[in-house]
Batch of 3 targets.
Target 1
Amino acid sequence: MSTVAGHLTVGAVVQALSAEFPDVTISKVRFLESEGLVTPARTASGYRQFTPADVERVRYVLRAQRDRFWPLKVIKANLDAIDRGLTPADGGDGHPRAPVPTPDPDVPDAGQLATRAELRLTAAELARATGLAPGEVADLVAHGLLRPDPRGMHDDADLQVASAAAGLSAYGVEPRHLRSFRAAADREVGLVEQVVGPRRGADAQRHAAEVAHLCLALHAALVRGGLSGRGG
């Protein structure tokens, strides 16, 4: 099978597909290229260079024509959907499907949020557990990131906050830079309380945990979207 710099020539593509599609020809592959269904690279001298992904793309087109009798317009729409991360149609009307959202493994579920840990740490224990200096723990308290109880004890939430703050400090992020996180968290808690309303007891706790989970999932998705360049 001939190749050009590790890529397949159009003749090699036909050879690779001929076992499944005996009638495929060089002209057929070139026609699919002219229709925009496959876009191989070209050398400086104009020779086509097909990658293995290009071959699979041609294979997808040929199977869709043979097995599903789809017109090129429908096939092209499904190829575009694949390129955009959608799930190609498996038959029927030929319309691609958006993937079903999967839970973010980094966002605690409602059950985890509803569970109250009994952990209580002194400031010194918190510092040792996170690698922070006692003065850094005090700064986090002063800026409202840590909220010890009346006895000065820190819970599991404070432990997680302090651990994250310790990691960020390695990048030059100081407690004063993190006050906006506390303000945003307080606003989210306020929204949860507004949604839960006058409910009390286990029912309120369950609803609060469910709403909080959705708020955290939304927050994580917005941050991820911003980092990917889609954010405004």
Target 2
Amino acid sequence: MSFRAVLFDVGGPIDLEVRHEQLVDEYLQRALMAVGVNVSPEQLGAASQWAVHAYAPDAYAAMIWKLCRGDEARTLGAIQHFAESAPERRQHRGGLELRPGVGGVLKSLTDGGIRLGLAANQPAAIVDELDGFGLRQYFTHREVSGHHGLRKPDTRLFLRACEDLEVAPSECIMVGDRIDNDIFPARVLGMGTVLFRTGRHIEQQPRSLAEVPDETVHSVEELKSALERMIW
């Protein structure tokens, strides 16, 4: 199999999201307190693990549902409070948390003639943030869900990227941190896959052979080696 392109998720492989997830947990607790549900950090952590293992499409909403013990009114109220906190969370975060060394991987791929694209559930503004780190230049396909409204695991997002890169799905590798959003839909299309284990979904496990990635990595160094094995 000959690969000519690589798609990257932003959150996880490129963006560390450490501060992001810390703020998520903090504001989840605030949202729950607003509806009369007080939870400890341990309870929040247990709910996070449950949501990940349950393959919840929206882990944050699932955590709220779990911690509200299925109380519909409190769940809806907490979800609303959490959603309304998004601008404040973005302000406090201060922007993308670039993973050290990932820029070198992107450069080596483009220097080797590999086309790069984004495949991410992100607001359109993330492209400008990548540009601030000098990374936008490496991507030929620069659209994310905020541009076209398609969200993973919708395979149309991947197909749109492949079309823009002028490659067949079988000529493309997907690098992401979630089995449900990144690995499985990419495999359905016949793409190569690399699971970058990091962040909230680090312990998510395949439920069948169809969800097993071609490569699993835990660092930028391992990512570089895995892509070199697959491409060259």
Target 3
Amino acid sequence: MDREQAKEILLGYQPGSDDAVDPRITEALLMAANDPELGLWFEQQQNADAMIRRGLRETPVPADLKQRILGERNVVRVDFRWRKPVLAAAAAAVIVLGVVGYWTSRRTSQYGLGAYSKAMVQYVMSPYPMVAQARSFDELRQVLAQKGWPTDFIVPDLLRDVTVVGGGALQWNGHKVDLACMRESRRGLWLFVVDNAALPNAPATTTPRFEMVDAVPAAVWSQDGKTYLFTAQGDEAYLRKYLP
């Protein structure tokens, strides 16, 4: 079993379930315990899944949900004697489209831009290890290159004069994420960069889009095939000072 096969297996693993008795899952878990890169990916995957589960548990279910669903049902009477083949084909098409839509929606909710932004912001808003010590973006690129992480990210012009303190080499769904950690006027600033291929709904524009992520302001944009996420200890006006 190689690393990619282990990732495919671990994507469906649920802690506390009977999954661990499956010999393939047991082997994948053992690989994660002994492979630092796979272990880091698995830890981040489990943290992201835990956040999604918390969000679902905290979402209230309307008391009249069942009645509303039943009330919207339409009863259709069909003469099946001559329409049966056509209807069977149409039903099959609807089922296929429904399954594709379901999995596309599920993948976006679990691994899309919203989940990614939340995981990254929560990562830096709590105590975290800074694996790369650096005093400039060039020095940070050198450290990331030594770790096998991409270094072709573009730093916004207005961020080039801030104080760089280090960075991180993270992963999201098997994709490498660059993290630049900065500080200005006793405030922390963070820039995350990941390939657009890591996100099923990556931003489609180079113009930063501002949003609140767990009450923390953030900006996201896409440039040269990469998604940029910028956040800081401040408000939206503070973020805008460093972006075009």
